[in-house]
Amino acid sequence: MTSARKPFSRGLPGALAAFVAMSAVAGVLVAAAVTPAAAVTSLAVSDAAGEFDGLPDYLALQPLDQTTTFFASKGGQEVPIATFYAQNRRDVGWDQIARSVKDAAVDTEDPRFYSEGGIDLYGTIRGALATATGRDVQGGSSITQQYVKNILVQRCDEDDQVDPNASAAVQKKQQARFEECYQSAAGVSVSRKLQEIRYAIGIDKRYSKRHILQSYLNIVGFGGQIYGVQAAANYYFDVDAKDLTLPQSATLVAILNNPNYLRIDDQSVKPDDSAQDNDAKNGYAATKARRDYVLQRMLVHHSITKAQYARAVATPISPKITPLASGCQSAVAYDAGFFCDYVEHVMLQDPAFGATADERQLRFQRGGLNVYTTLNLDLQNTAQAALSAYVPSSDSEVDIGGADVSVEVGTGRIVTMVENKAYDPTGSAPGSTAVNYNTDNAYGGSNGFQTGSSFKAFDLAAWFEAGHSAYETVNAHYSGYPFPFSDFTASCEGGRLSGGAYPVENDESSEGGELSVLGATEASVNTAFMQMATELDLCDIADVAKALGIHSASPATNPFQIVPSMVIGTNYIAPLTMATAYAAIANGGRLCTNVAIDRIVTNSGDAVPAPTSTCSQAIPSTVAAALAWTLEHVITAGTATSANPDDGIPILAKTGTTDDYQQNWLVTSSSKVANAIWVGQISGSHDLRDYYYGGTALANAKFSADRTILRALDDTYGGSAFTAPPDSLIYGSSRYSSTPQGSSGASQGSSGASQGSGTPQGSQTGAATDAPPGSGGTGDGGDQGGTGQGSDGSGGGGGSGGGDSTSPPSGG
C-alpha cells in the first residue's frame, strides 16, 4: 500500500508567491553557476535577489573536534595508552585519503562538483520548484552545501551542549537552545536553505575544490560517534583512510546516505518499521544495496572499469569493527589509569592550555593532540606488580589503600604512579576507585594522609638552617614526657604558645635521655624531635616544609596546621608532594615542580607548548647536603634498612607511621629519582600489624614492595654520592672527638604515639611515631583528633603514631 499524498497546504497566492521568489533566486543561482566569481553581486533581478545578496557569505571555519591521544614510553618506544574524544575524528590530509573514496563521494553526492560554483544548480532549481508548489523543501545539495551544513551542526554540538549534571530545568532550556540551533543549521525552511547556499558560494570563492572535498570527508558523520573518513576507516575496517579498497570506500560513502541506519556495526536503527533489517545476519543488505548504487555511479562517471565494478559488487561487506575507547579506562591495560586521569586533570587546569576553565575544556574537547607523557611503562609495571604483591585491592575487614609514585630529581618528571585499586571512573566495582591516592584532591586525588615521621625531614632542615648540627645532643626526656605548650614558639601564630601540656610517647619506654640528632633520626625518636622543636620556631619548620613544596592535599578539608604535633607528621599530604620534596633535598635543595607531559604535537605535526617544570632554590645547598647525609643513615643503619636494595646506590630515606600503624610511609631519593610509598587505611582505625597479605603484615608492606621498586629505579637511573655537607652542620663548631650516644646506628625501636592534648586553640591532632616492623607495638594510642573522611580516599586514620625500625618485617 502506498501512502496518501500530502494535502496541498498552500493557497494559490502563497504558492505563486513562493514560485516567484524561488524563481528569482534560481535566476541568481544561474549567475552564480555561470560566473561564480561574481556570485550574486552582479544581478539584482528582484527584491528576492536583493535579499539573497544581503545574506552573509562568510563562514569562519573553526577547528573540528578530534581525538587526543596520550602516549607513554615502553622499551624506548612511544605507546598510545588512552584516547579522548567527544567525536571520534582524526583529520587527515589529501594524500592520506584513498582516491576511491574521493571519487565515490563526488560521483554519488555531487557529479558536477568540480565545475559548479559551490552549488548543484540543477538540483537546487528542481528543489525550488518543488518547494514553490507546496511539497517539502528540497534541493540536491552540493558537497560544498553539505560541508556548510556540517559546519553549522558542529557548532551546535560544541556551543549548545546539554549538561548531564545540570538540573532538569536547566537541561530543558539547554535542550531547547540546542534544538533551535540545530533547526537553524539543518532544519527544513526556505530561509535556512538560502543561507546555506549563500555560505556555499562564499566558501567556493575562498577555497579550492580539493580543500573543500578534503574538509568534507573529514567532517561528515559515519554513525554514532564516528566522524571523518579516517576514524570511519579505522572503526569499520581497521585500516587507514589511504589504504581503503574500492568496496570499502564505496561502503563508507554509502553510509553517508543515512548513517544511523546504514552503519555496519550491528547498531543499525531503522528509519521506520517498513525498512529492512541491516545487520550481519543479512549481509548488511540495506548498506550493500546503497554501496552497489555508489559503485554504479562510479562506473557511469568512468572512475572505475566494468571489471572493477563487477569484482566490487561481488564482494560481500565484511567489517572488522575496531572500537576506540574514549577516556582513561583503556590505560588500565598499561597499569596507567590513575596517571592518565592525572594528566587529564593537568590539561583541564593548567593555564598553559587556556586562561579560563572554559577555554581549557574547549581545547581538550576539540583535541587533535598527541600528548607524550613522562610515564615509563617498564618501571610502572614493576611498581604496580610490587605494590600489588603486598597490598590487596580490597579486604573484607580493612578499607586498605596503597600508592607509590616516582619523580625524577632535577626535572620534576613523574615516571611512575600506581596504587592498589583498579582505576574505574564510577568506582562501583569491588577493589576499584576513581580516587587517585597519589595526588591532591584538586587533581582527582584524596584529601591526603597523615605522614607520620616522614615529615621529620623538614624538622631536620629547619634544625640545620638554624645552625644546629647532626651530632648535637638533645634531651629526649622519656616516653610520655609532657611537653608544656609554653615551650613552643609559633611567631606566625602569635608567638609563645600557652595552655596545658602535650604528652609524647615513644615506642619503647626505655627510649629517652641524651641522644644525638643523628641517632634520634636513625631511630625516629619522637621526644627528641619534639625537644628540637622547642629550640626552633614552629613557623620556621612550616616555612621550610612549604618552601620544599609541602602543602595540604585538600586545604578546604584538611588545612595545613602549624601546631606542635605537626613536627611528627599530623598534616594530610599526598604522596606526590612528599616525593617531590625529597627530590629537592637530593637536588641540593633545589625544588622542581612536577610535570607529567614531555611534549605535545598536533595531528598535523605542529608543536604545542606544554607545561614546564620551574626550579628554584628552596633551602640552602649546604642544608640540603647535611639533610641528605643524615637521612642516608636511615636506610643504612636506621628504620628503613629492610627496604635497602643493597645495590651500591646511595639513597636517603625516612619512614613514617601513625598510631596503630594506620598509615605507613617510606619516602626515599637517590641522586636521580625520588620515590614515595604509602600503605594505609582509607577509613577506619585498625592496627595494620594484625592483617597480612602476601606473607607480610600490611604495616610492613612498604618495605617489601619498596625494595623491589628501588632496585628497578636504580637499575634504570643509577645514581651517585650526594654532595658532602660542611663539617659545621655535622659535628658542630666544637667538632666532637667521639661518637655521641645513639649515633652508631639503629636504636631500640622508637617513637611512640602522642597521648594528645589540645592545642591552645583546641585543634591539636595526633602525633606520629615509628616502631620496628614486627616489634612489640606502638605507643599507647595517642590523640585521635584526626578525622577519617570515608571511602572517597580523603585521608584516613584518627591520630598519629606507630613506628619504624631496622629489623626485617615479620610474618611469613
Q: What does this protein look like?
A:
The chain has 812 residues and is an alpha+beta fold. It contains 24 helices and 25 strands. Strands 2-1-3-17-18 form a five-stranded mixed β-sheet. A hairpin with a 2-residue loop joins strand 23 (692-693) and strand 24. Helix 3 (99-109) packs across helix 10 (246-255), helix 10 (246-255) packs across helix 12 (285-300) and helix 12 packs antiparallel against helix 13 (306-313). The longest helix is centred in the N-terminal third of the chain and has 23 residues, at 12-34. The radius of gyration is 35 Å and the shape is elongated. The chain starts with 11 loop residues before the first helix and ends in a 58-residue tail after the last strand. The model is unreliable at 1-16, 33-49 and 735-812 (pLDDT under 50).
